[in-house]
Amino acid sequence: MKITILDGYAENPGDLSWDWLGEYGEYTVYDRTPAELIAERVEGCDIIITNKTPLRRDLLSGLENLKYIGLLSTGYNIVDWDYCKEVGIPVCNIPAYSTMAVAQLTFALILEHTNAVSVHSESVHNGEWASCKDFCYQKTHLTELFGKTLGIIGFGSIGKAVARIALAFGMKVTATTNHPAPFDGVEFTDIDTLLAKSDFVSLHCPLTDKTEGMVNADFLSKMKPSAMLINTSRGQVVNESDLADALINGKISAAGLDVLSYEPPKADNPLFGLKNCYITPHIAWAGYETRLRLMEICKKNLKAFSLGNPINVVY
Q1: Which end of the chain is more exposed for a tag (fewer CB within 10 A), N or C?
Q2: What percent of the chain has pLDDT over 90?
């Protein structure tokens, strides 16, 4: 069989191996594939593996040999899975591989705001501690998490993992979800109450018609002026112009984001340059252990398909 990986670099920048694919046929790995080369690179393929390279109906309908699409992600909107369902091509994603990694980065963003580790480390290396008249100093306001309230919007596996970490810090936790179920230490409430009570609001909801642009001027006006917004879900959940306005005008105190509405972002993104907006380049999933786990699930998906019993099919 002919196998093509369209954008393998993000998953494997060189510290993992694709050699296991040789068991299934002849394979080609592209670090990335621009739009104008997609059709050429998938021509004649039996198996396509993709992360963020789109596979739309007009392209897929011309691939007579295509038997399987493997995703290197949990999200699957990059593929026209309605078409694949119609013609019986399994599209298999990678569920629940990054739960703890995303929860970890959520708190990395929170702790950067509360403890300003990078700011203080830079000042020490610049000689400020060596020349200080006192045994310590602080460059910014510092605060404890103990006793603060974390509001979690979306309470799937990642939301639950974030809640456990928050509870370990001694935080109060409130959450909103479509399917609340008892969870020790967590109070479930409506979104307006959550926004009014929370010192930190963390987004862990999927991108849907309902959640797209959910974080807008009205949403942000309901938060405390001292509160921080964290988004490690999907960039399109946030209206970035409204968030920039809220940060500039003190409607909220800070934001921590691992995702933006366009990735890579446009150079004129309104959030760039704001000192109270911490932005990381979609790295929550990028730790070695996390990517290795993803690779192992990808292997299992393809193995199950080869045995006639595909798993993690998205439709």
Answers
A1: C
A2: 98
The CATH code of the domain that includes 82 is 3.40.50.720
Categorize the per-residue pLDDT at 188 as very low, low, confident or very high, splitting at 50, 70 and 90. very high
The residues, ordered by sequence, that sit 6+ positions from 48 with a Cβ below 8 Å of its Cβ are 3, 4, 6, 42, 55, 66, 68, 69, 70
Cα-trace Rg, the chain: 22
What is the per-residue pLDDT across 259-269, written as a single tens digit (0 to 9) for each?
A: 999 999 999 99
Q: Could you tell me if residue 313 is inside a domain? A: no
My answer on whether 166 and 55 are in the same domain is no
Same domain for 225 and 154, yes or no, is yes
Mean pLDDT calculated for residue range 167-175? 98
The H or E element containing residue 58 is helix 57-60
Give the catalytic positions in this structure: 234, 263, 282
Question: Do the domain assignments include residue 312?
Answer: no
